Amino acid sequence: MIQKINKMKTIKLIDIASARSGDKNNVCNIGVMAKSVEDYATLKKHLTADLVKAHFKGLIKGKVERYEWDSLESLNFVCHEALDGGASRSMRMDSLGKNFSSHLLRLELTISE
Amino acid sequence: MKKVRIAGAQGFYGDSPLGAISIAMQGAADYLMHDALAELTLSILQKDKIKDPTLGYARDIEVHARTLYPIAFSKGIKIVTNSGGLNPESAAEKVKAILEKQGIKGIKIATITGDDMLSRLTEFKDNNVELNNLDDNSSYYDSKFPPTHANVYIGAQKVKQALDEGANLILAGRVADPCLALGIIAHEFGWNIDESTTQEDFDRMAFAITIGHILECGGQASGGNAYSEWPMNYSLSDLGYPIAHVNEDCTAILTKADNTGGKVSRNTIREQLVYEIHDPTNYITPDVVVDLSNIKLEDISENKVSISGIKGKTRPEKLKLCIGQHEGFVTEQFFFFSYPFAYDKLQMFIKATKETWQKLPVQILESRFNIIGVNGLHEDAVEIPNADELNQRSELGLRIAIKHKDDRTGKTAIAGIVCLGLNGPPGVISVPGWGNMNRAMLSLFPCLIPRDLINPEVKYVEV
């Protein structure tokens, strides 16, 4: 019996995209911009809201919504209850969530070849 | 075809005026658009106003009035800002005095007010106006904290009116940032921006709002804060702030002034576009809901990007109101630990601190202990290196932050642990002035109110 071997590879998000994040009340929006049309296809397929939420662990307490922005080859992740109550109430050093983008760029996608 | 050039002259309260000055000196724009009000800024300005009732505006206008405004006015450039903050009328008087002292005459300053709802909160309660928190749906009327300020995000109508009526400088209160550009563009092209019903009106307004959104963060659209252009091989100290060359047919070219640093590219504009937009089909502003999903953005040539393809939808029935509340105080202090055993010493210090606070008459509502250089920025989202590795470090920083109800606790809590400099682990330093004692926490309660409750006003001051 022939068994199909599933070959996996790792793609670093920082190699295929850039990101920028900002605050609105207790919500952090992380925009992820693909470097190319092909990279956008990879992001769309593999960079899910669930993956993003898990990556941030306790920093994001609410849900994460993903919006697709094809005309800019970008994804917007809207992260709820993400800013410790909002910049004006936060006890964090990064109260505005400006570095959510930076942290997201640390993420690695494991995909099958 | 009519055109107008608008510069994103300021991205936030505290931004450098050099970008705006170089644009004014070159005559590279017809309008300078200044965004002085991030969400948090009104809390900061309110603290000023509490100490001195003539304050409450963005204080950098005093520097601008001495350095930037004279150059701009001499070239016929108009200036549109929300730098009026919580006190536009006082701002106008201050600017008038500074301009007159420099011998400048014939300038019409417009103030836009009507966004201040602080004195109406009781009226809203009496009339059962629903004020539910946009994040957790709690009712403002259940809040235990005293209100300090309350401002509604208003639209572009008064900006347009002020320009129609000959204003050279606008000092608005809480006009929504991208609406500053809408007011300019509607004035220049004679567009109707009151209650609109045609698709053409919606699309035009949506286009102008998008221009405003691109410009509202200054250098963040023209090469600043740009992972998309990393390693950012251009000059930062003389970054050219973004300028939109706006056409009447709802297309525009985004660029920057000659001989300036930074970069304007599809990447830099993209990065500013996605920022804070959330759902690209529904970017909600006081005057129109914008659908950016089919936007066309193209690199034309070096530092020139074209933009078109924006659609609009009917404006929302309710406007965003941010109520500031005095929620308590925050005190912060920093300590630094040297090799050897930097991490163990830091943990020892934290333990002694917590034990000390148990014994003192202090009520600490919340505390944070961050290791600077390790988990300051990302807290628990990052794995920290193990103790052995951290103990090899030459130095580690500790940031202690506490939240408390009254303004005495901070001093007591920190004074109580300063003795650890002598009584605690060896190889520790603390610089007392680096901390922040008893900073008032003016937190924001965001909600919505019906737009028919608002009545913005324009007034003029002649120089």
Structural notes for this entry:
- The complex is a heterodimer of chains A (about 110) and B (about 475).
- Chain A has a 4-stranded antiparallel β-sheet with strand order 2-3-5-4. In chain A, strands 1-6 form a two-stranded antiparallel sheet.
- Chain A is an alpha+beta fold.
- In chain A, a hairpin with a 4-residue loop joins β4 and β5 (about 75-80).
- Chain A is built from 4 helices and 6 strands.
- Chain B has about 475 residues and is of the alpha+beta class.
- Chain B has 2 domains: about 5-115 and about 155-315, no CATH class; about 325-445, Alpha-Beta Plaits (2-Layer Sandwich).
- Chain B has a 10-stranded mixed β-sheet with strand order 11-12-8-7-1-2-3-6-4-19, with helices on both faces.
- In chain B, a hairpin with a 4-residue loop joins β9 (about 285) and β10 (about 290).
- In chain B, α6 (about 155-165) crosses α7 and α7 packs across α8 (about 200-215).
- The longest helix of chain B is centred in the last third of the chain and has 18 residues, at about 340-360.
- Chain B is globular, with a radius of gyration of 25 Å.
- The model of chain B has no long low-confidence stretch (mean pLDDT about 95).
- The chains are: A alpha+beta (about 110), B alpha+beta (about 475).
Brief write-up:
Chain A is α+β, with helices and mostly antiparallel strands and 113 residues long. Chain A has helices at 13-16, 37-46, 49-56, 100-104; strands spanning 8-12, 17-24, 27-34, 64-69, 74-79, 108-112. Chain A contains four helices and six strands; from the N terminus they run βαββααββαβ.
What labels describe this entry?
heterodimer; A: 113 residues; alpha+beta; 4-stranded antiparallel sheet; 24% helix; 34% strand; B: 463 residues; Alpha-Beta Plaits; 10-stranded mixed sheet; 6-stranded antiparallel sheet; 19 strands; 27% strand; globular
